[in-house]
Amino acid sequence: MKAILLLASGILVLTACNNSSDEHAGHRMDGFSATAKTPEDSLFKLVMEGHDVGMAKMGKIKEAQKLAQAALDSLNKTTGAGKEALQQTLMDVQEDLNYAEYSMNTWMEEFNVDSAKDNQEVRLSYLKSEQEKVDKVKGAILESLRVADSLFKK
């Protein structure tokens, strides 16, 4: 009985994986194909490139957040001239890093891969808007890391 269920499951998986339809022929569905075939493919690729750049930096964002918090904790145990200015700088960096992380997470939650896939005009407009958003997110990530890196030179 188990063998029959296992065989049936295997056949279903193979059938599902090999199920190709002409409906999607010539169109990229995952955003990672080598060649864009339509303007919508090109925009989708740009959106995904922005996402990929931002996501690749998320580990560094977390690391920089920890460094900023550790520096603030250490600074709070000291006294002296310049403490308040350095404290404000660290809080500003921490705020920028937190915003960068938040904006990436929010953008990913709100992005709809399949938005208006049956209406090219609306889809192009949506993807243009998403490209602008993800570019702002990417910019926030890269700029906050640039500032943090200059502050926490290793």
Bin the strand percentage: under 5%
Tally the helices: 5
Radius of gyration: 23 Å
Q: How would you spell out the order of helices and strands?
A: HHHHH
How many strands appear in the DSSP assignment?
A: 0
Distance between the termini: 62 Å
Give the class from helix and strand content and strand pairing.
mainly alpha
Largest sheet: none
Q: Please, how many domains?
A: 1
* Proportion of helical residues: over 70%
Q: In terms of per-residue confidence, which ranges show pLDDT below 50 for 5 or more consecutive residues?
A: 12-28
Query: What characteristic shape results from the CA principal axes?
Result: elongated
What does this structure look like?
By secondary structure, this protein is mainly alpha-helical. The chain is 73% helix and 0% strand. Helix 3 packs parallel to helix 5 (120-151).
What is the secondary structure topology, with strand pairs?
Elements: H1 2-17, H2 39-56, H3 58-76, H4 83-110, H5 120-151
Helix pairs in contact: 2-5, 3-4, 3-5, 4-5
Task: Write a concise synopsis of the structure shown.
The protein has one domain (39-151).
